[in-house]
């Protein structure tokens, strides 16, 4: 009997026909609760949207609000070897160096003169190409300067399709990572790249080097860089190095670095800043 009573109580709790209550509440009570939560959540969503909106207003689409880590630029070499930074090949085995030449072809394709002329300006060399915003008025989009592939001359892949690899005089291309707002060089002196032996015993093995553009400079007109969004067509300037007489059949450890009064090299914070090293080995006998 007690059991039946309990069952009846439950039934009544779910739906009480006398008081017309569902789960202990009348329809209007339920309605009020739903209405309350509806308004409450709409209010929360509105608050969230408002906060987001205000925050996004303070962000500039064309400039990162936070930039810290990249204040000293790293350098990278092309052709991109594997992670170990090695360029090792055998002159007699075409397949061992053809990959490097192909990688350079691909890397340099956007620098074709025709493309550069279409996308970018012919700037006044040896001075920064500043396009500042005047207060709230954004000077966007910003133009960029031409870096013609032909400026790499013998390392452009145009006059010598094999970039010298076939003759044992390979070209290496260097670029400096992009840093927004960086003005490298001082007093009108452009930053330039120099390469040398990483270790003393390799000094005699490096042989003569040739730099393109002359003196291995990154012209000042390619700076400052304003960011991907503001400067859509930006082409990073390059420096090519041709190894004219590197010793064959031996590992040669090379280090290239940027020379600019205001770019610290290998700082404590980032030992790769402003320099890059790699191994070059050209085999000529099986
Ligand atoms: C760039 O120029 C090279 C040689 O002049 C040509 O073979 C290549 O197809 C060009 N690439 C593009 C993307 O126009
Ligand atoms: C790039 O090449 C084009 C055509 O080859 C030439 O008209 C232009 O002046 C060159 N630009 C620079 C900066 O040398
Ligand atoms: C970028 O290059 C395209 C052509 O590829 C050109 O139409 C456009 O005007 C350029 N934009 C800027 C901001 O230089
Ligand atoms: C290269 O450097 C030398 C010596 O510093 C200088 O005389 C020459 O004008 C430079 N060449 C170019 C093209 O900047
Ligand atoms: C190339 O380097 C070797 C030593 O490694 C040297 O004997 C030779 O004279 C150099 N050749 C040229 C053209 O500089």
UniProtKB/TrEMBL annotation:
Organism, scientific name: Periophthalmus magnuspinnatus
Function field: This is the non-catalytic component of the active enzyme, which catalyzes the hydrolysis of ATP coupled with the exchange of Na(+) and K(+) ions across the plasma membrane. The beta subunit regulates, through assembly of alpha/beta heterodimers, the number of sodium pumps transported to the plasma membrane.
GO terms (BP aspect): intracellular potassium ion homeostasis; intracellular sodium ion homeostasis; potassium ion import across plasma membrane; sodium ion export across plasma membrane
Keyword Repressor: no
Membrane topology note: Single-pass type II membrane protein
Family: Belongs to the X(+)/potassium ATPases subunit beta family.
Taxonomy, superkingdom: Eukaryota
Keyword list, A-Z: Cell membrane, Disulfide bond, Glycoprotein, Ion transport, Membrane, Potassium, Potassium transport, Signal-anchor, Sodium, Sodium transport, Sodium/potassium transport, Transmembrane, Transmembrane helix, Transport
Alphabetical list of PANTHER family matching this protein: SODIUM/POTASSIUM-DEPENDENT ATPASE BETA SUBUNIT, SODIUM_POTASSIUM-TRANSPORTING ATPASE SUBUNIT BETA-2
Name of the featured protein: Sodium/potassium-transporting ATPase subunit beta
GO cellular component: sodium:potassium-exchanging ATPase complex
Cell compartments where the protein resides: Cell membrane; Membrane
Record note on quaternary structure: The sodium/potassium-transporting ATPase is composed of a catalytic alpha subunit, an auxiliary non-catalytic beta subunit and an additional regulatory subunit.
Principal location class: membrane
Transmembrane segments: 30-56
InterPro entries for this protein: Na/K_ATPase_sub_beta (IPR000402), Na/K_ATPase_sub_beta_sf (IPR038702)
GTP-binding keyword on record: no
